[in-house]
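Listing 4. Sequential folding, example run.
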Amino acid sequence: MNIVICGAGEVGSHAADTFATAGHDVTLIDQDAERLSVAMDTMDVGTLQGNCAQADVLTEAQVGAADLLIAATNLDEINILTVSIAKALGVKKTIARVHRGTYFEGRGLDYRKHYDIDQLICPEYSTATAIARTLRNPAALAIEHFARGRVEMQSFPVTKNAAACDKPLSQIKLPRGVRVAAITRGDYVFIPDAKTVLQADDRIILVGNSDVFYEARKQFHRDEIGKRTIAIMGGGIMAIWLCRALRDRNWSIRVFETDRKQAEEIAERLDWVTVIQADPTDRNVFQEENLALADVFVALLDDDEANIIGCVLAKSLGVLEVVAVVQKSNFLDLLYHIGVDRPFSPRMVAVKEIEGVLDDSPLRLMASLAEGYVDVYRVKLGADSPLIGPPLRDVKLGANWVIAAIRRDGLVWVPAADDVIEPHDTLLVIGKHGSEKSLQKIVQGKQLVKN
């Protein structure tokens, strides 16, 4: 694959190294000659000095013959402009990294569609979502690269006093977009049908659209614990996304922001959050706010060193779990040794997202669940799949498989019985371990065909 990467910062350089090592032809563009010199000395890549938002520079990089262009400079506007120009010059696929929520969320305009961008990635959003998933349920199933936060999937036991206990699934009134994907009963794991009666201590895999998942979860599992408390240091966009991801999910949230204007803005946008204009690493503030009793301390400042110091201090003063976000990925291994429980690097997250976009394999194992008895696959459909056309109630996958989610044109949702699969949809399919060959036959006949 011929790949052009714009921006030789940490994301661009790491992506270039990753893809060059994998055997792809990579050209790295940047205006900084020193960065390019380092890249040439350490990686097997071609380099070009220049402004990637100029058509003549992209033409010199032969972007018209490239399979992929990745715009990963530090400026959102440059990235968006670059991929738009590259598409006009003939590149097959584009990825743009953005930081601002305005572009990523498409407030006022669908920027991805308007500028013909194949994939928008936002490391801050993905990092906030990853932190939230880790905190909400440490055993949460990792499908974030597929669902982008729009679908939840968790494994948990059915409690004896739950409304769904001792009832067949057909009698449980679940909201549209929620389904029980698999059940573990003792040593037996199976895909349920409408007649399956849930028993106390069954361990279920529940999958559902994020907006209705937690209401549905209450029918199967009654939590006896009270709210957990989280203290967030820093009130930037990542903190806002993290707060939104934790809303109404058994969390009491406090955000500490020293800038008065920023604190007021957060308080106005997040009325369910307690916003405090103070520095939580100030020992007086720490003691006054009883932060030693917090379940989690999360450091989200733009300053890596401040985040590390804040987490080490919080841990030393009694906080059970501390999470630090650092931009420099070379800090990650160090943090485990100094007491940071969960370090996150948005730049590393960005590279992993890019790797996911590049994976064009029609059938990909996403996760193994229920101690390896259940597998989760991402399935890319061609235009002639036998699954296309009929409503899902008439689609016969057999007893071993269930369609858990559908992704189409940037949208992801858990389908209902009357949903219809369309050409080139991507599916999240859950089934018994060891049945991959049968899944291939079901989806595409003899074998899966690449898009």
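-- end of first protein; second protein begins --
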Amino acid sequence: MKFNKWTLGLAAVGAVSLASAVRADEAKLSQVQTALSNTTISGYVDVAANYVAGNQDRQFGDYSDIKSDGFTFNNVTVSLDKPLDESPWAAGYHVDLNAGSSSINGFNPNAQYWLPSAGAVTIRQAYVALRTPVGNGIDWKIGVMDGITGYEGNTAYLNPNYSRSYGYAINPASYNGLLGTYKVSDLLSFTGGIVNRGTSQGYGQSDANASSFDYVASATLTAPNSFGALKGSTLNVQTVQSFDNGGVNNYSINGTLNTPVAGLKVGFAYDVLQSLAYSADGNVFGVYASYQATAKLGLNLRAEYVDTTDLNLINGIYGKGEEVTATVQYDLWANVVTRAEVRWDHIEHFTAFNSFNSELENQISFALNLVYKF
């Protein structure tokens, strides 16, 4: 076959075009690989064995994660995370997929307050993270995210006890909206934003006002190193405000105090749910103590007082009562949180905690909780 200069020229152009296309594809692939290389995958599997002493007609499991007798699959969570770096215009994202009897559906407006989404795989969090270089930098989250009020959080094994507190039950578990955090200094930081309002009528909120918004604000004080043994102690003042007569407001004041005793921390929480529609309040007072005896052994104690005598809106709780929970955590296996717990719940009159049987004023629950972190 003979080749003239035109044939060779066309072949050269074709080769250059093919090479350019390959380089373009490689560049796109490299961009994808670069983005994925900064993404981390983590999560946990949370299971338990539970025993409830005595009559089980009244189950506190609706509020505390302590179920009836038997084994429970509480949660499996898989997280994808690309955290913000130190650059002034940093960007990232976070996704939590979860399933189980204690999973949270962040897209369900009724789950703005903690209502487990048993069975189905749901999205607990899915937000884009951004930073704008204003002052020290404002870190933004837009999408579905965990609530910021209250002493306890949605990741159960990070809480001092296995069972959840009543204070946790009356704070929003999730938001769908926009939050910004500004760190003034190591001593003080603020978080604020605007989120969609939940529509759970069980909390006095009105479906007719579902398009209304909640306004979220939080201030955190952290004790500096100059405080000696108290350094790292925190105080949080938080609120969710609806600003209309069909909504619900939340108020939370909580903190953790490091002590001069090595390994000993104490905490407190005061949580209020205020129904504007019913002009009624629910109040929960809680105290905490945690002692890290050794590198593997931790002892945790919680006590709460519940007063909802004028508010029959907190997951069916109505009346006054107390709970005391003692938890022993011993990390026997690598990557496994192992906790044994006993919990006592008491009602002061027979209508509390959705019960109408005066013989059920006390309930004692036992649990063995295992969480594998990956």
